[in-house]
Amino acid sequence: MTTLRQALALRSWRAVRLLAGPAGEAATAALRRVELIADVRAPVPTDLQGALLAVAGEIDRDDWHLDVLIRRTAAGGAAGLLIAGTGPIGTAATVVADRLAVTILGTDDPIAGAVALRVHLAQPELERARWVTAVADAVEGAGDTVDAVVTGAAAVLDRSIWLVDSGGNVVVGPTSHPPDPPESAELAAVLAAPESATVGWVLHEVATDHPRGAYLMLRRREHDELAPARAALSVLAVAIAGRLAVQRLSSERDARQRMSLLAELLQPGGPVDPQLPRRMLEQGWRLDGYHEGIRIDVPAAADPVALRPEVLRAFADAGVPAQVVEQGAGWAAWCTFADLPAPKQREAHASAVRRVQWLLRARLPTVMGVGSLQPGAEGLVRSLGEAGDAAKIAATRTAGGHLVQVDRLGLSQLLLAWTRTETFGPAASSLLTPLQDEPALLATLSAYLEAQSSIAETAAILGVHRNTVTARISKAVELLGIDLGDPDERLAVQLACRSVLAQR
pTM value? Predict the structure, then answer.
């Protein structure tokens, strides 16, 4: 938006002078267009809202027609009046202009002044067209992937652009300086920002079935107008939505193939198709070696096909190579080892799998069961079955982060059964009496012991900061007067926590 005061500061208006009416801070009328008439006697448009009325012909400063023109300018709601000449106007005209708050401007060439202002006022639309055209050309020349479209648009605009979900997680875009995740209220405010809003970025919603919603985020520069950026993002959003729809169809087709192949492998009596090994090899699945099945469950409302990339990302971030297949309300996954791993390697792998669950739980309410290592195709089927059973148990195991590993399940279940006896129950309650009014301390202590004294894992399970876990453990140890470094005391406290929590 340009005001009269801003127009007077334009280089192209250096020859324009203020003759009468509001000036300085008072000259704040918004200019949107220029109306040009031939002379002082020419008909004046009745609707002059947001307009500067320019008179091309010479005007007698003392002519009463000038007074009439000023009144008509005010009646039409014009922002100001531009006339020929820079000399002072008559006293009567000055009084009328001041009383009606009409700014009178003068220049030696009013036609040139009107044209210069029209060019300036058209700049936002020209800039908007430049941004939109640049993005449209980039989209047309980009590849079929969303990454290529976003990267191409960012390159032609020379701006950083991200595709993010509603939590601020970067889906596509530069990772060196990702945007700060906006709060939900801030996100809504930016999406609804008026053209005059002063914000650090521009957001535009992308029409998609992404489970967390998707938005384009462009980092603005200091002098970037909001309207061109929003128009460019609207074009980019349509292109992305189209490519996402194509990708969705491709993902659903691939998912059906994976699910069908897995169903054949798991069917009772074993696979009947002699080509199954070849088809599995084409999918990148191995039948030889040792397999560890993993079952991941999510609420029924979740979309396993749409969420599979997040699951794959969690496995990749945790450094766990795995096959992931949509199955029911979740996924069947498995890891394959060429040879039986050594104990240290198995322990490191188990920790990495637990990290997969922490990463997933940070975004989704997942439940995970992990089967035992089994050899060959039949072993894979058995391990996946174990993982499914373990996942059912994990659904109620909040202290373990809703994760159960079959290799540890036998002893765990045996000890848990023992802690529920009439003899152990009262003793456990007595041991933990100092924590009976401190549920947060009890929950943290239990999770800490189940997580093998890992502060980071406990923090991930409880969704709190590691410093909070450390402080709670210190306070719980102080209240109980125990030494967690003593194996006997540690086991007693762990069993007591299980017993007390199982009774609630």
Answer: 0.49
